[in-house]
Design goal:
flat, mainly alpha, single chain
């Protein structure tokens, strides 16, 4: 067939299999304006990705492609046949783009990837929207699981896990002993979705796996089950290491730490790594792993019936504060415990250097990710108001997009203050680039006033005013472009509910 895809695929060095035909894709067809926009975004994909530090007022299309793909996937559109080669090429060059691009490419993209060695990543690293058998067709499920491509098997296991977690685990068990170590690791990771106490026996067996990485993942999953035997074993060990001294002197009760003196075979089977990283002491390394894998629910009773906030505020003897608090931070992230995460974050105005719990911005970002999106945005907005933008980049990265009104205003206000204060403009390029992608497009009309070139003070960096003006103009134009992109995807398509039309059929010249 002389379809657009056939022509473009031949120019993309595809080795065709005579007589092969792509599977159907019954998702909606893109509206014409959105189709043109996709062509524009893919045509610009080879340009260097922007960081917000470039000059000029033109939006960076390479940074908007993931957002466009996310919106298109959310609305159930299928990729145009003619766009599939460029879409696969874009995914090949950008790991961050692959999940969105392959989901949009769908079953036809996965089919097409078989014919070009440059696209083999799609066959192994993602489902590509593979067509999966129905839940009731147990024979087809079994056949695909035993004979399918790795990507198809990953997609199948994930789909079955969503429908019936127990059936997925049982399916995995049928071939577990014959899988390669790296495949066992990937399949085991799929059990994170829908993880429950019913998975414990399988995970306990995996603690004896030949692969160290598989054993570690099994231990991590078990430690996320507070009622598991592993969690109880870890809690028993950790309780012997951390206690409360009620006669702490003038400062009141204090936490006393006695780190493990050895890492025995049972500890190692439960996922404790015996060998610390370079520059790390053995005992502190073992302690951190024990506390991280211990259910946080044991500590209030162990430490005087205190709340997480009160526990984090207790003094810790002999310089163990950082180690203990860091382990609690990791435990809160692993166990998705919002109460402990809030306690360890402390008030937004508190300096990261003094705690109360999480001293690094990386730890704070991980803790924030456990909170509901509105709480995350509110905390980061207050952090920016107190500390400015210089330490906010990592924190902004975990906030939901588009940013909430208060968070967006906090970012813009901080940028405006930096501009008026004559700050070195390029030091804010990362945040400016993030704002282009994450601010609510509805904020664009309120930002026009910032696009004028400000008067430069004597202390300002030479040319800073022009840079700030260009940066704000680019911000406004990007927000308007994002609004247009979303509007185009929302436009009705005459063929929105139609199956793949004849001109969208993807087949090989030998078909």
């Amino acid at each position: 067939a002389n379809s657009p895809c056939s022509h473009n695929c031949r120019t993309a060095s595809v080795s065709w299999a005579p007589g092969s035909t792509a599977p159907p894709d019954d998702r909606r067809e893109l509206p014409e304006p959105a189709r043109r926009r996709l062509s524009q975004l893919l045509a610009d994909r080879s340009a260097p990705a922007g960081t917000g530090g470039r000059r000029g007022t033109t939006p960076d299309l390479t940074e908007l492609l993931p957002q466009w793909l996310t919106a298109a996937n959310d609305q159930g559109y299928r990729a145009p046949a003619a766009a599939l080669p460029a879409l696969l090429d874009a995914a090949r060059g950008r790991n961050d783009l692959r999940p969105y691009a392959l989901a949009f490419a769908g079953p036809r993209g996965l089919w097409l990837a078989r014919f070009n060695p440059d696209w083999k990543f799609a066959l192994r690293g993602a489902s590509g929207g593979a067509v999966l058998p129905g839940a009731q067709d147990t024979e087809a499920v079994r056949q695909l699981w035993e004979q399918g491509l790795f990507a198809e098997r990953v997609a199948l296991l994930a789909a079955v896990r969503t429908r019936d977690p127990d059936a997925a685990r049982e399916l995995l068990a049928t071939t577990w002993s014959t899988e390669r170590a790296e495949d066992r690791l990937m399949f085991l990771d799929s059990l994170r979705a829908g993880l429950s106490d019913l998975d414990e026996p399988f995970l306990e067996e995996a603690l004896s796996d030949r692969s160290r990485n598989v054993r570690a993942t099994a231990a991590e999953l078990l430690s996320a089950l507070p009622n598991s035997a592993l969690a109880a074993r870890m809690a028993e060990r950790a309780a012997t290491c951390v206690s409360l001294d009620r006669t702490g002197g003038p400062t009141g009760p204090t936490v006393v730490v006695e780190a493990p003196h050895e890492c025995d075979a049972d500890m190692q089977r439960d996922g404790v790594s015996a060998t610390p990283p370079s520059g790390r002491g053995e005992r502190s390394w073992w302690l951190g792993q024990l506390v991280e894998a211990t259910p946080l629910s044991i500590w209030p009773g162990r430490l005087g019936d205190r709340t997480p906030e009160e526990i984090v505020a207790l003094p810790v003897l002999d310089d163990w504060t950082d180690e203990l608090h860091a382990a609690w931070c990791r435990a809160a992230v692993r166990q998705r415990d919002a109460r402990w995460a809030r306690a360890l974050l402390g008030p937004p105005a508190a300096s990261p250097a003094i705690g109360p719990g999480a001293s690094s911005l990386a730890e704070r970002a991980k803790l924030l990710a456990t909170l509901p999106a509105p709480d995350r945005a509110s905390w980061v907005a207050e952090f920016i108001a107190a500390h400015g933008l210089s330490e906010a980049f990592q924190l902004l990265g975990v906030c939901a997009v588009p940013w909430s009104g208060p968070l967006g205003r906090a970012v813009v206000d901080a940028l405006d203050i930096a501009r008026d204060g004559g700050s070195y403009p390029w030091s804010f390029s990362g945040v400016m680039g993030l704002a282009e992608r994450c601010l609510d497009p509805a904020e664009a009309p309120h930002l026009d006033i910032l696009t004028a070139t400000p008067d430069e003070s004597e202390s300002a960096s030479p040319g800073a005013g022009g840079y700030w003006s260009e940066a704000f103009q680019r911000l406004v134009s990007t927000l308007r472009l994002r609004a247009a992109m979303l509007s185009e995807l929302s436009e009705p398509s005459e063929l929105s509910d139609a199956p793949t039309p004849p001109d969208e059929t993807v087949d090989s010249p030998g078909a």
